Amino acid sequence: MADADLPGEGVSLWSATTPETDYDPLDGDLRVDVAVVGAGIAGLSTAAELDDAGLDVAVLEANRVVSGVTARTTAKLTSLHGLVYHDLVSREGRERAHQYAAANEAAIETVAERAEEIDCEFRRRPAYTYVTDRDRRSSVRKEVEAARSLGLPAEFVDDVPLALDADCAVRFDDQAQFHPRQYLLGLADELESGDGRVFEETRVTDVSGGEPCRVATERGTVTADDVVVATHFPFQDPAGYFARAYPKRSYVLALRVRDPTPEGMYYRPGDPYFSVRPHETAEESLVLVGSQNHKTGQGGSTAERYRRVEQAARDRFEVQSVAYQWSTQDYETSDGVPFVGPIAPWRDHAHVATGYGGWGMTNGVATGTLLADEIAGTGSEWADVYDPGRLPPLESAGTLVEENVDAGKEFVGGWAWSSLAGDGPSLAPGEAQVVRDGSDLVAVYRDEDGEHHRRSAVCPHLGCVVSWNDAERSWDCPCHGSRFEVDGSVVDGPANSGLSEK
Ligand SMILES: Cc1cc2nc3c(=O)[nH]c(=O)nc-3n(C[C@H](O)[C@H](O)[C@H](O)COP(=O)(O)OP(=O)(O)OC[C@H]3O[C@@H](n4cnc5c(N)ncnc54)[C@H](O)[C@@H]3O)c2cc1C
Ligand code: FES
Fold first, then answer.
1. Protein residue with its CA nearest to atom 33 in ligand 1
2. Is there a single domain that holds both residue 486 and residue 417?
C-alpha cells in the first residue's frame, strides 16, 4: 500500500503492464528431482535450466510468481556493475574476476536467446558507469583496463551522452534491457506447459538437505534429490548469512519526459547512487530513474526519499509527469559478490542464491546456469567466485562489524532503555508509531478510517524492533530487512512468519 500523496501510480511498471498469475497451490505431498523455493529471477532461471536438462522440477512460491524484488527492479541486463572489476582482480585474482565477468556476460546472451521465443522488450543498449568528480578519473581508467583484461567490452569515454554532470565514464557495449515480468512469466508458462510444475501461495516452512531432501510447506511435503533456496534471502540460516549480508532499499520513478529518450543505461555509484534507463514500447516512452539507497528500516521518512528522487530527476530532465513509483531492496555481501552454491557444507544437496547487491538480473540468470550445472553433476566453471563458503575479505571486516553493531542496536533489549514512554500516542489517520504497552512493544497504525491496527513490534526473525515505512505503509525491520503489512503478514523475509497480534 503506497502513500497516496506521492506522484504517480504506486506500482512497478512491470506489474502494471502484465497480467496477474493464478497457479494452483501445492495440494498434498510430491516427489520431484529438484524443488526450487522462490519464483523470482533466481528461482525461475534455475528451474528453466534444470527443466532444459531434463530434470523434474517443482517451483514453490509463497505469494505469486515474480511478485517480489524482481517485480520492482530497473531490469538493466549488464555485466557493468558500477566500478567492480579493478577491485575484484586485486582482491580475488584474475581467475575469479574472470569467472564473475564471464558469468554475467553469458547471462545477457542466455536472455537474448530465450527472448527469441518470449516477447519481453529485450533491447541492446550500451551501459555506462559515470563519475562526476574529476579526482575519480583514475578509478575509471583502472576499471576500463581491468575489465578489458578480462575480455569485457569496456571503453573509457569523456563524453557521456546524457545531460548529466558526468566527468567521464566506463562504457560497455552490447548490454541489454528487458521487461523482467514478461520474460519470467514466459519462463513459468514454458515450465508448466512442459514437465515442470509451479505452485503459488505455497510458503515453505522448513528445508532439510540430505538424501533425499525434504521441503515442508503449509500444504504438503516435497521430497527431492536437490533443493534450491532462492527466496531472495534465506529464511533459514545454517551458515550465518544474516551476519554476512545486509539489505539496502532504494526508490524508482518511471517518468514521462519532454527530452529525447536516452540512448543508453546510466549508473553513478555513490551514496546516493543515481540510475537512468529508458523504457520504450509501441505505446509509450518512459525514463526510469532510481536513487536514494539506505539500509532497510533506517532511512527516515521513505516518502521523503521518493521526493528526493523526483527532485534529482527534475534537475536532469524536463519531467511531464510521474507514471509509476515503487521501491524495493537487495542484499549486499561484504565483497560485493553474491552467494550461490551449497547453503552450508554439511547440508547435502541444499543450495542457496542470495546477495545480489543490486545486480541480480544477470547474476540471477547466471545462478540458473551455475546451479543447474552443479546439480547435474558436471560442475560449474564459475563456482569458486560465488562459493557461499568463501572467507570475507580482510578489509571488509570493519564494514561487517559496523553493520552488525547497527543491527544489534535495534534489538528489544536496546529499546527497553530507549526514550519511548507512555501508553500510546494519539495518531492522526495514516500515522503509525511503536509504543510501549506494559512490557510489550506494540506497532500501532491508524488507518484512513480512524481504525487502529496493533501488532507486536518485535520482528519474529531474531527479535529486533520494526520501524515505520511511511511511503509503503509497512513495518520494516532495521536488522536484516524483513518487512510486514500493517496486518502483520510478511512482505519480505528473512522472517517466515508475521508480526503477532497484540
Ligand atoms: C531499486 C532496485 C533496482 C534494481 N535494478 C537492477 C538492475 O537494473 N539490474 C540488475 O541486475 N539488478 C537490479 N536490482 C537487483 C535485482 O532486482 C535483484 O537482485 C533480484 O530481482 C533478486 O531476485 P531474487 O529472485 O533473488 O528475489 P525475488 O524476486 O524477491 O524472489 C524471491 C521469491 O521468493 C519468495 N519466497 C520468499 N520466502 C519464501 C518461502 N518461505 N517459501 C516460498 N517462497 C518464498 C518470494 O515471495 C519471492 O517471490 C535492483 C534492485 C533494486 C533494489
Ligand atoms: S529481519 Fe532479522 S531480526 Fe528482523
1. 38
2. yes
